[in-house]
Task: structure prediction
Amino acid sequence: QVQLVESGGGLVQGGGSLRLSCAASGGNVCISRMGWYRQAPGEERELVATTTSGGTRNYAASVVGRFTISRDKVSNTVFLQMDNLKPGGAAVYSCNTVWSFCVPGAGAHETWGQGTQVAVTS
Result:
């Protein structure tokens, strides 16, 4: 019952910036975590950054100091500000959320967005 819509990907030169947005929509659900993962060709998907309902933020070591994740809980939109992007070709950035129905004892569910491509040239 949760859908994620991502935007903001594109092609930039090394050192440039992009801001990704992910808007969550659905019914009576409670979001516990939202974040971003990325996958480059031939590589496994890896965590980039996540933020929990309690405000805890987790970043991949490779992006610390360059990327910033934030969330608007009212709109259930998560943002990833990416600065000083490093050259390395294209990767797909996918939004992810862990959620549950807003009733006691409800189990957790996970939803992925369709992904948005980010390419950084030399």
Q: What stands out?
A: The chain has a mean pLDDT of 95. The two ends are 40 Å apart (CA to CA).
